[in-house]
Amino acid sequence: MGSYLSDAIVSGNLPQWSEVVSFFNETILLAEKDEEKIVSKSNIGIAYINLAVLYMNGPQPVDEEAFLSNLEKATSIAKQYDLKNIYRSSIGLKGQYFMQKGEYQYAENLFKEGIDYQLTLPYKDNDVLATFYSCLKDVSILQNNYKAYYEYDKLFARYNRLKHDHTTQQMLQNADARYESEKKISRIQQLEQENRLQEKNKLLGYAIAAVLLIGLIFMYRSYYYRQRYYQNREDNLQQQQANNELKVQLMEKETLENLAEKLSLERRLLRSQMDPHFIFNALGNIQSMILQHDPTMAVSYLGKFAKLTRQVLEQSRMETITLEDEIQTLRNYMELQQLRLNNSFDYEIHCNDDLDTDILLPPLLIQPFIENAVEHGLKPLLDRRGLLTLSFSVNEEDNILVCTITDNGIGLKESRKRRPKDAHRSLSSQITDERLRHMLKDNPHTEFRVEESDKTDSSRGCVVILHIPIN
């Protein structure tokens, strides 16, 4: 803005000279106030130079004091901040002023000072030197010193030529610089492309390394889990083997215990089947028959007793016997009971026509119930002859043998009334219960049921129904 106003004053387009001077003074005043905040100090020097030009080209006569004051301030700024262009402009403008004023010698000294200053710089500005020598030529003409003019003209021609040579050289240098710059740019682009390629290769290498690392991790995890799986399987197999061995030991122990219990039951069963009273009474009756000279009957009953004893001994060691063998044993037993009780009761055995007598059942299972019927139902009977009925049938739907034992004795209620309070349950009944529990333990899917009740009709007596699973 300041340069525009200054040029306008010189060209005569703007007559408000005082307003322009006031503008520059305000600008310089603001610049001096905030000098520390201004980064480019050359702007302050240029403002002083422009203001000096205004005074030089303004109303005549020139305000020399203001003109020189602004030049001195510009020179001071140039020296303080080493502003060479401001210093040269200040000296040149001052020399032109004194040349116009007619003080040629002082103007010549100023131009020479500018030349000396320019020659002290590390580089030579041929254009500035040519300008200073041109001014010296003008001073020489005004002084009529043609010899000095001749010398200054040679120097002017020299630096003017160098100025043009320098311009040409500068153009060539600029061309070389552009070529080198383009070459460098091309090289930079090539290097950038190579760098991008290297970055891509580096990223590709990282990706391959990552894939390999992931693969190694996966292989390690697979190997680890596979080893862990095999180890767990081996541990499980060992644990299972140990459990199986323990189970076998427990089964063997349980088998031995069951076998011992079974043998104990068999021994107790053997002892219980042959009641000592029954044996002694049977032998006594046989002896009485012999003494009564009835050897035929005595031999018959002795044979039955021997056969029953042999059957009990044999069957007590067997797991199962046929129904036919069981009926034969029961028949011998009831006949001996008749002998013992002086034929005070009769017995009957009924089997359904479709009943297979070869079916298997546990031995000596029914005898204790026959014994109870005789001892507690028929033996106390005094007012009538006793009758013991044994019936066998098959429930084909449930595959069960039904054995019904019926007597016309005194009945359950009466028998329990007559039984002493401290009387113990018969040994054969207790062992029969234990045998049933033992059989259920060995065969959990089978069922043994015993139903005891008094007769429902007007006649007295007891009914026992056994439900025996058929093997």
TrEMBL record:
Segments forming a coiled coil: 174-201, 234-273
Transmembrane segments: 203-223
Domain annotation Signal transduction histidine kinase internal region: ranges: 266-344
Keyword presence, Kinase: yes
Single annotated GO MF: phosphorelay sensor kinase activity
Keywords: Coiled coil, Kinase, Membrane, Transferase, Transmembrane, Transmembrane helix
Assigned GO CC terms: membrane
Lineage top rank: taxon: Bacteria
Gene3D superfamilies: Histidine kinase-like ATPase, C-terminal domain
InterPro entries on file: Bact_2-comp_sensor_kinase, HATPase_C_sf, Sig_transdc_His_kin_internal
Listed name of the protein: Histidine kinase
Organism: Sphingobacterium spiritivorum ATCC 33300
